[in-house]
């Protein structure tokens, strides 16, 4: 009797301790259905119900510490079962005390709770201490109770799903962990592969490496390849130390090829990372050479037609707006790299930038101790404005041009560069999270209505198709009888300057036959002016520089006018002379356009026309340019008659038939220029002599 009372007291004490620990850990208990066992049926069926206690990770007892075997033997010796913690008895043969449990609603298969064991008893019959009591395994399931589970990282069990209390089976959890590990290993292999390709990059291997990177885009997720390629390129091109420009050009060239062949999202992802990193480095003070390296990357992205000039101008305006010593260095670096390309693409914006820089420099004259860098920056801008390459030290466009040719050869089948250029502003990239990435096709974005200053400015402008009635009436008088001609005429008449007219005419997106109307309308407008207007000559020269097909169209148009010289009024005749002379002086058209002239059958109007054209070309052109103009027709055997005819015409009609009012100095200069042109027609060897 005394032994029974001691065992019962030990059991009750142990049950109280277990219930207290369960409440602290948030473990629920399981009710027995119909008085059945509290252990899983699968364990009881196999006779393994007692293993739950041994498999518990926090199990402090062991089989050698007075486990269940000793209890069973003692129960069999007494020939009776021990009551549970509530004082009741159990008819089971295993002789173990059982906990009171609750059945979870809505989860018939969920089990929560634990099995309790008889108190350990020493060999001499005394109850064992509570610390030696074997704790049964407690499996955590979804808790349907009202008591929330406290956060206890030390006691957290991996078998419980922490995602909204749902239980995840071990095999599913293991599969997720395996998939996560495999993805991590795959990204590491991808990064290693991309880094190896970039490290082996050189000019001869650009084609093969860009092809291998395209294969990676086909074999992997574009997001993964974009992130990996961006990280590898930034680590290679934009470290804290200075990087030579040539080492930046080739990785950016590979990126531009992928931008054209794979998709614009490749360049967009890289550009956004570069701009945000530059903005962060610039705000932190720009220590080291990271800002210079990132700015060089942006410059070469523009060189290889990934971004439009608007982004470069935004950066330059931002730098000139603050105008510190660091800004001056960065501005000089950008102008040295892409200055002449900016002048070619948007001379008007470059002119405005130069005016703003000059105003800032004059306002901050006493701000800097050393004014040499400011003076050098202004001289560089002036050289860009005057198209004087010689005044920019260290300027060498040959490496960029060589890589551009390689790029054109590799992306020829992927479309033109103008269609894939990213026309993104600086603010649009920095505010991409708020306004959306509208420059990526298919980019999903939901949020507040997009607000962009650039769009507001465009909305303030009048519609491009609306012109005044006065211009339309003028177009009717000039016999612009088709819609295409009328649009071209109105565009030319309403433009601010020849660059504005050039951009607007390109935006009309005319097709082959319609595009030729630009030349016909331009020549007709030039001839109809009362006095010669050089606006049309500069616009014609811009189109000749843009595409060779415009040169051919101008050539045929001038030949048509040349056949009808005797019927042209005096004003039209004079304007045509100045137009042809300007195109020859600026090398927009070659001297071979005169090959249709029959020098043996010249009549008075044609002699007058050629004399005026050649006189302007000889007298208003620099000596170096004059030699190159005439030397362009010196090597072709098909132009032999033209060379002989020009030499005869210059010697007979131009020198002997010079006006009597010509001064002596002008006559001497004309003769010297005539001798120079004659030598140039004979070939480059005569020029060397």
TrEMBL record:
GO biological process, one term: ribosomal small subunit biogenesis
Spans annotated as Disordered: 23-161
Main subcellular localisation: nucleus
Skewed-composition ranges (Acidic residues): 114-123
Keywords recorded for this protein, A-Z: Nucleus
Cell location: Nucleus, Nucleolus
MF GO annotations: RNA binding
MI domain location: 483-599
Pfam families reported in the protein's UniProt record: MA3, MIF4G
Gene Ontology CC: nucleolus
Protein name stated in the entry: Nucleolar MIF4G domain-containing protein 1
Upper lineage: Eukaryota, Metazoa, Chordata, Craniata, Vertebrata
């Amino acid at each position: 009797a005394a032994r029974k009372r001691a065992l019962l007291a030990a059991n009750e004490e142990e049950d109280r301790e277990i219930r207290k620990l369960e409440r602290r850990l948030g473990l629920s208990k399981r009710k027995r259905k119909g008085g059945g066992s509290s252990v899983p049926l699968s364990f009881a069926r196999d006779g393994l119900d007692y293993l739950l206690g041994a498999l518990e990770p926090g199990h402090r007892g062991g089989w050698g510490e007075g486990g269940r075997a000793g209890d069973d033997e003692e129960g069999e010796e007494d020939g009776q079962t021990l009551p549970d913690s509530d004082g009741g008895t159990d008819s089971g043969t295993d002789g173990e005390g059982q906990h009171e449990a609750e059945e979870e609603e809505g989860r018939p298969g969920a089990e929560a709770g634990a099995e309790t064991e008889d108190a350990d008893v020493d060999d001499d019959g005394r109850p064992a201490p509570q610390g030696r009591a074997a704790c049964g395994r407690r499996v955590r399931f979804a808790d349907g109770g009202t008591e929330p589970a406290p956060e206890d990282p030390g006691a957290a069990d991996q078998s419980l799903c922490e995602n909204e209390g749902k239980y995840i089976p071990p095999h599913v959890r293991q599969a997720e962990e395996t998939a996560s590990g495999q993805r991590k290993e795959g990204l590491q292999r991808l990064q290693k592969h991309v880094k190896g390709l970039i490290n082996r990059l050189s000019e001869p291997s650009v084609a093969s490496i860009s092809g291998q990177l395209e294969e990676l885009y086909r074999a992997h997720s574009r997001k993964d390849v974009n992130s990996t390629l961006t990280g590898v390129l930034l680590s290679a091109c934009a470290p804290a130390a200075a990087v030579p420009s040539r080492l930046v050009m080739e990785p950016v060239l590979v990126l531009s090829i992928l931008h054209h062949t794979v998709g614009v999202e490749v360049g967009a992802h890289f550009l956004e990372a570069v701009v945000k990193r530059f903005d962060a480095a610039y705000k932190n003070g720009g220590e080291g050479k990271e800002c210079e390296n990132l700015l060089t990357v942006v410059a070469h992205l523009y060189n290889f037609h990934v971004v439009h000039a608007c982004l470069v101008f935004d950066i330059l305006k931002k730098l000139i707006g603050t105008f510190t010593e660091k800004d001056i260095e960065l501005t000089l670096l950008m102008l040295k790299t892409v200055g002449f390309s900016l002048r070619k693409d948007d001379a008007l914006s470059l002119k405005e930038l130069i005016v703003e820089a000059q105003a800032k420099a004059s306002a901050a004259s006493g701000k800097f101790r050393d004014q040499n860098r400011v003076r050098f920056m202004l001289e560089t801008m002036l050289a860009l404005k005057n198209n004087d390459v010689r005044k920019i030290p260290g300027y060498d466009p040959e490496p960029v041009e060589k890589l551009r040719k390689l790029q054109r050869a590799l992306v020829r089948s992927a479309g033109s560069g103008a269609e894939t250029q990213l026309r993104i502003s600086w603010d649009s990239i920095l505010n991409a999270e708020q306004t959306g990435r509208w420059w990526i096709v298919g980019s999903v974005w939901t949020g507040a209505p997009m607000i962009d200053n650039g769009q507001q400015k465009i909305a303030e402008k009048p519609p491009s198709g609306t012109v005044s009635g006065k211009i339309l009436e003028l177009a009717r008088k000039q016999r612009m009888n088709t819609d295409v001609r009328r649009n071209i005429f109105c565009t030319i008449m309403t433009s601010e300057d020849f660059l504005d007219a050039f951009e607007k005419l390109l935006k009309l997106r005319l097709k082959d036959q319609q595009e030729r109307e630009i030349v016909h309308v331009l020549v007709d407008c030039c001839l109809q002016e009362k006095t010669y207007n050089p606006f049309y000559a500069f616009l014609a020269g811009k189109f000749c520089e843009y595409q060779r097909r415009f040169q051919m169209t101008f050539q045929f148009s001038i030949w048509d006018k040349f056949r009808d010289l005797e019927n042209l009024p005096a004003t039209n005749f004079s304007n045509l002379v100045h137009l042809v002379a300007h195109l020859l002086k600026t090398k927009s058209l070659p001297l071979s356009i005169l090959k249709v002239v029959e020098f043996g059958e010249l009549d008075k109007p044609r002699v007058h026309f050629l004399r005026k054209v050649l006189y302007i070309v000889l007298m208003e052109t620099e000596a170096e340019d004059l030699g190159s103009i005439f030397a362009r027709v010196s090597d072709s055997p098909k132009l032999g008659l033209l060379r002989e005819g020009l030499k005869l015409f210059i010697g007979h009609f131009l020198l002997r038939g010079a006006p009597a009012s010509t001064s002596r100095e002008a006559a001497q200069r004309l003769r010297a220029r005539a001798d120079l042109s004659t030598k140039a027609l004979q070939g480059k060897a005569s020029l060397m002599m």
